[in-house]
Amino acid sequence: MNERVISLASLTVLELSPPDMVDVAARAGYSHVGLRLIPATPDEHHFPLVADAGLRRQTLQRLRDTGIGVLDIEILRLQPATRSSDFKAVLEAGAEFGASEVLVAGNDADEQRLTDNFAALCELAEGYGLFPHLEFMPWTDAANLQQASRIVERAGRANGCVLVDAFHFDRSASRLEDLQALPPSRMRYAQLCDVAGPRPHDMAEILRQARNERRFPGDGDCDLPGLLRSLPSGIPLSLEIPTRQLLEQGVSAQQRAQMAIDKTRALLARL
């Protein structure tokens, strides 16, 4: 098996401060982490890396001490009133951390405006050496792979990419044929987890599962071998696997991060 970048996503160990997350990633054998610079929801527990210079310095020092890199920063939401300049401080922080990828959500029903805003974000991010990835999620306005690909292509920016997350790929009923048709240059990393059970009809239940009840690779029903074979060879993988049940059972962040990478490596070894 060729070694590849494997990153610990914030959502997997969301209770940890960024410096502690770096330590957990290093002990478990990850090469990178993802940093959540903007909370996904208003009530989410958040460590304000952009506003807190002291926390930023502490995190940078821990990255240097451990040799862990930063793969991506998240989560930039493109909404109707969004201006790309709104994200300048976030992109500056991402560049300071040495990140290369930016996770972007599309929350604007006007697809042309969403496309224009994505293009503008790409132009701003280019100055920081960053690649925005539009992540399709079935409850957003980039609901599936087909729509996200269309928006990114119409935005027409070389650093514009699509983020494939195994959970959203399954729950949006996206197709491997469409993934195989996407230019490899439009995918610089992917998010990996497994998915259990049939696709719910209720979007609120899909959202609940996405934030609380994912499975470690190989523990669910998703065709992860087919997905991985359809992605660019050796693409970096961000392990985003929130497991609220394990958290409530007292399984530590260290244990969960270790389970995630061990099961991912076992899956990769079988490809």
TrEMBL record:
Record's keyword terms, sorted:
Isomerase
Q: What single Pfam family name could you report for this chain, choosing any that match?
A: AP_endonuc_2
- Where is the Xylose isomerase-like TIM barrel domain positioned along the sequence? 22-252
Superkingdom is Bacteria
Any one Gene Ontology MF annotation carried by this entry is: isomerase activity
Protein name stated in the entry: Xylose isomerase
The organism encoding this protein is Phytopseudomonas dryadis
